[in-house]
Amino acid sequence: MFYIKKNKRKCAVCHNYPDKYDPLNLYYAQQEKKYGAEHTKAEFLNRKEYTCPFCYATDRDRLCVAFFRKIFENKQDKEVSLLDIAPSAPVEDYFKNNQPEVIVKTADMLMDGVDYKIDIQNMKEIEDESFDMWICFHVLEHVKDDRKALSELYRILKKDGMGMLLVPIDLKTKKIDEDPNCPEEERWRRFGQGDHVRRYSKQGFLDRIKESGFRVIEVGKSIMGKEVFEENAIPKSAILYVVTKGKSRFVDKIG
User: Fold this and answer.
1) Could you give the number of structural domains in the chain?
2) Is 75:237 a contact under the CB 8 Å cutoff?
3) Which of 63, 108, 197, 248 could form a disulfide with 244 if both were Cys (CB 3.0 to 4.6 A apart)?
4) What range does the domain containing 82 cover?
């Protein structure tokens, strides 16, 4: 009798079954070593299984889409507007192929081909309460004033909407370390990347979000389930920070 071993991995974005995901580019570890980067404990980063070999979705893309699949178990009865800041191609493809009622607009300060070429610290091109949803992953650690950026994100979100936030969080540090004026070499050492201007602690990040007026729901393994985390190689400590202005038609049933 033959037994077929069940593959533990299943990408939430493309639904392919890789034997394992591809590791994070060694460049980052090499730069950290070169500049003597401080040792950290990342809340959400799987260096060994980072990228899907089929659709190139990162670990955070996979958890993001798994969450969208959860809240969009049924098709929406009307169009949903979503702003993807520093957009992810795999996430855009997911919506195009699976949730056409979600109308995705993109924004970035440097990237060509986006709908809004803007600085999220001052999104004057976007009117108040314009979007039902937005995604802002690994952006706030790059901007000079993350409080201004969070204030703008609050402004453009509809009253019953939902935002999704991620930044690199170091579980070993107790407070935010930031300096937008330090040189690149020091940024590698203190913040873990040459274009980062701060390193977030978990509590510091939560406090900063709440200062902007948001309610925060921490979406982790207890909400998403063990199977989703294992299939997508998501670290046990990973948290997706879902924010609302109050009651939200998208997430109140889980938060």
Assistant:
1) 1
2) no
3) 248
4) 32-244
* Residue 73 within a domain: yes
The string over 223-250, giving b where at least 16 C-beta atoms fall within 10 Å of a residue's C-beta and e elsewhere, is bbeeebbebbbbbeebbbbbbbbeebeb
Find the CATH number of the domain harbouring 149. 3.40.50.150
Per-residue confidence of the chain (255 residues) as pLDDT tens digits? 444 456 799 999 999 999 999 999 999 999 999 999 988 999 999 999 999 999 999 999 999 999 999 998 866 668 999 999 999 999 999 999 999 999 999 999 999 999 999 999 999 999 999 999 999 999 999 999 999 999 999 999 999 999 999 999 999 999 999 999 999 999 999 999 999 999 999 999 999 999 999 999 999 999 999 999 999 999 999 999 999 999 999 987 775
